[in-house]
Specification:
350 residues; alpha/beta; six-stranded parallel beta sheet; 12 strands
Length: 350
Amino acid sequence: MNRLLVVLPNWFGETLFVTPLLRVLRHQRPDAYVATLGWPSCREVLLHNPHIDELLDYDERQAHRGLVGRWRLIRTLRTHRFDTAFILRKSLSRTLLLALAGIPGRIGFENAKTGWLLTRRVSPDSMPRHKAFSYLPLLEAMGLSVVLHPYEYTVSAEERYAARDKCQPPFPAQKVSDTSGPLIVFHHGAKWPHKRWAADRFATLGDRVVAAHQARVVITGGPGDVALAESIKQGMHQSAILVAGKTTLRQLGALVEQAHLVVSNDTGVLHIAAALHRPMVALYGPTSPLLTGPLGDPQRTVVLHHADCCPRIPCRRPDRPAHPGMDSITVEEAYDAAHRLLMQRDAVHT
């Protein structure tokens, strides 16, 4: 195995879960050429990762759309002369493209959908384990020794500067990088609406941590989260800094790196915070922390989850029946967790 391709899952949180596998590949095959293939929206997660030589895009909505686009990607893959591909999701289109590109070694998990196109079929784990470690049996099947590592995210110096320039608060004399009080990031976005804690609860929590700790609350999010972020800010009596929709993903990661505490629903930004070793309060409802929980410092990570309030986990259909998972998390328990983590920080700095 000298020229290796890792075919990524589709979402940027799940892409972060691939980084332990990439680390093992680099350490076990230090002289190999390692590339990844995934959606353009996911490449930002892996920028500056020291274990990757090249990031290849599979842009099936534009550049690789239709037969002509698929053929263009096949030609690109052929020019790279990969000898082995690790396929991390059960995708017929992706696996077929790899076969047509002439990659001789195609390793993936046994399944009826794509198993016939694989040259090495690996049985999935019989017992569920965290998604970040669920890919490692593919490496073990190829004779590589596996050591469990948390996932990784790398921030560049330029991204740190860009985050500071873009994320200025509405107070002329204050900057996000100031050290007068703890910087707390609230990230309320999530792929599923029923994975979001209520905006009014975020607002109440924000008021309490500002009053108790003289904290600076920064409300983050993507372009689609701006209205909800505004409602949190407007619901607070204390001042907050609104950057939702104003940063790239990379700048957001750089901002999270500066945070003294992150409070977030189960979404990709939560896992970036975990990869950057930030203290965090993770809010879980319809998903399982055992399978997709943050792999952060256990001494500085609090996961709030009431599994008995949920009809099933994961729950992808919140209205059949109603899904009370996130509603069961109270402001009081979120504040207690945030207060405890901030007091740990204060103890270290006294």
